[in-house]
Amino acid sequence: MTTVQSPLLRAARREATDYTPVWFMRQAGRTLPEYRRLREQYDFFTLAQQPELCARVSLEPVKRLGVDAAIIFADIVTPLLGIGVDVKLVESVGPVVSSPIRTLEDLTQLRELEPEQDIAYVSETLRILRRELPETVALIGFAGAPFTLATYLVEGRPSRDYTQVKSFMYSEPRVWHALMERLSAITITYLTAQIEAGAQVVQLFDSWVGWLGPADYAEYVLPYSQRIFQALRGRDVPLIHFGTTTAGILELMATAGADVMSVDWRIPLDAAWERVGTEVAIQGNLDPVTLLAPREVLRSRADDVLRRANGRPGHIFNLGHGLLPQTNPDEIAALVTYVHEQSQQYRQQGAA
What we know:
Blueprint: H1 7-12, H2 33-39, H3 44-48, H4 51-65, E1 69-71, H5 78-82, E2 87-90, E3 94-97, H6 115-118, H7 120-132, E4 138-144, H8 146-155, H9 163-171, H10 173-197, E5 201-205, H11 214-220, H12 222-232, E6 239-242, H13 250-254, E7 260-262, H14 269-276, E8 281-286, H15 295-309, E9 315-319, H16 329-351
Parallel strand pairs: 1-4, 4-5, 5-6, 6-7, 7-8, 8-9
Antiparallel strand pairs: 2-3
Helix pairs in contact: 4-7, 7-10, 8-9, 8-10, 9-10, 10-12, 15-16
């Protein structure tokens, strides 16, 4: 068997590691002053489409925070932009789509993704990162899952309750399934291109799927997540499945076929792992707000996550969602060091 030097890749494959690997969603940018200075010169999408600058943003957390993975700096709507969907990233709002999907005819705006012409900058950024990163640091690619992309395409913008998209599923099932078919095909092509460009692990962000109950998830979403993971299965790249507020559908999500289930803080890590099964790795699950708490509270909560993982192979330490913008980078770096040191001690004590 080929030895994987990256602790994160080893954990994703449920292999033993000397310490628990750490990375954070939204680590590429947002909290770092270096990123904020770049944003004074460029809007988000302009910055994300310049490979050299994009790579710099992606590398900064590795250098400054000591995390075990770099994740490409991009947005989940990147492939939609690539195929010409009129979507804008509105400050303090999020992605806003000018022509929401309402009918079968509206689906004509969702053509097939052609990576070499539509998102070449993503592939080039990944190639730069693979050249720059040490072997011990994993390179993560990602995509928005069909349901989460559909929420923006149907609602037209971020929503508080997803009333429009859920009623659309019920009232227009033919259009819904056609939409999910197209988005699944786009996502498969997009993630395949990232893997071919150098991504060593990919995460499917189904950020808003927790708004669905089990029956709706099983009927309207699960088949498409399964299709994506099945299409990528032969690539020998670990696959992470992420969502928030998903405690009610964890078992169903685990059947989609990912190698790693990412869970949030609304369920204890050990309970989540028991529910999804020991045949998958688990990622999580610190509440991002604890990084704003006093140091002793933060360490206590991190200890709780590590104790619940109990040194079992297959744990990737992360937050239950992304870093908050006001988080102090020094606190993030201190947390990384603490998790590395504490988890190593737990393993040594267990071996004694």
